[in-house]
Design a protein that fits this description.
Layout (H helix, E strand, L loop, with lengths): L4 H24 L1 H14 L27 E2 L2 H14 L3 E6 L4 H10 L1 H8 L8 E8 L4 E8 L3 H18 L6 H15 L1 E2 L10 H7 L1 E2 L1 H15 L3 E5 L4 E7 L2 E5 L20 E3 L1 H7 L16
Parallel strand pairs: 1-2, 5-6
Antiparallel strand pairs: 2-4, 3-4, 7-8, 8-9, 9-10
Helix pairs in contact: 7-9, 8-9
């Protein structure tokens, strides 16, 4: 029996040559192939449309702005996208990197809790997170998952309280200053600062149901009330304190109910207005330590 040894050898050589060519082509066009896989397989059909709930606020700030994109082009876009996701009320959303240092930027952001806290202060408290996870895949897909600070039942309880307050205390003849003051006085007179904080009273719900809270509860209930009235505002955080910044007649003012509800050594309850709608200069004149905020973030206040 005769074998076509030469023919078989040529076939093997052709196969080897083809595989070498294939490897070379894949190497040369590796970026295009990776982009195709990312675009057509990883992202296509997997990224849902961002939804916006009733607590979305159509406000842009110096620090972050609402953005409409699926691919970020720079670090500011990353901040803007996270703000937009939180502001929308969506609890899970993915977008993609579109620049060289994107993955490293996201990893640095995740390691800096202050950045996420600052962004969280700018959204409606009902859309704010209690926990957040920002993950980035090697493909450049960034996913934001967050757990809301308020449950549906918490929200309904707070809304009922505020709506009842408005119906019984607010009328059309009142200006915004008086509308804010009457609520400020009501909260200060009916609650007290939780010195021991044994029950972890951080939220507006805690404030209303226990009559006690720390600064987070005070600032949240005021922010929710202001948003209900359609008055632009956000929260400001220093190293260990949080209060409200309120916009009236195109001017921003500080409001700190916590410091207007002092813990008195004689056991009596006091109602103050020292920190009620004051300028930044006045705020820092009264206290430069607890209210030492980042003016590069909260530029509206500076």
């Amino acid at each position: 029996m005769c074998y076509n040894v030469l023919g078989d050898t040529m076939k093997d050589l052709i196969k080897i040559a083809f595989m070498i060519c294939l490897v070379v082509v894949v190497y040369i066009y590796r970026n295009n192939i990776a982009n195709f896989i990312t675009e057509e397989i990883i992202y296509r059909g997997s990224n849902k449309v961002l939804t916006y709930n009733e607590y979305y606020l159509d406000y842009d700030y110096s620090y972050v702005q609402n953005i409409d994109t699926e691919e970020v082009k720079n670090y500011q876009d990353v901040l803007n996208m996270i703000y937009t996701i939180l502001n929308s009320g969506d609890d899970s959303y993915s977008f993609k990197c579109g620049y060289t240092d994107c993955i490293n930027d996201v990893k640095k952001l995740v390691d800096d809790a202050d950045v996420l806290t600052n962004i969280n202060n700018l959204v409606h408290p009902f859309n704010s997170f209690s926990t957040i996870n920002v993950s980035v895949a090697n493909s450049g897909k960034i996913t934001v998952n967050n757990k809301k600070a308020y449950s549906d039942s918490d929200i309904e309880y707070i809304k009922d309280y505020i709506n009842n307050f408005i119906n019984n205390n607010i009328n059309n003849s009142m200006g915004n200053y008086d509308k804010i003051k009457v609520f400020h006085d009501n909260i200060v007179n009916s609650t007290e600062y939780d010195v021991d904080n044994t029950n972890k009273t951080y939220t507006a719900y805690d404030l209303l149901t226990t009559g006690k809270a720390i600064c987070g509860g005070y600032s949240d209930i005021m922010a929710i009330y202001l948003n209900t009235l359609g008055i632009q505002n956000y929260k400001i955080t220093s190293d260990n304190h949080v209060w409200n910044l309120v916009k009236l007649d195109d001017v921003w003012y500080h409001l700190d109910m916590t410091w207007d509800d002092p813990v008195a050594s004689d056991g009596n309850q006091y109602l103050l207005h020292n920190f009620f709608l004051i300028s930044t200069d006045k705020l820092l004149e009264l206290d430069k330590i607890e209210h030492n905020f980042d003016k590069n973030v909260y530029k509206e206040a500076s």
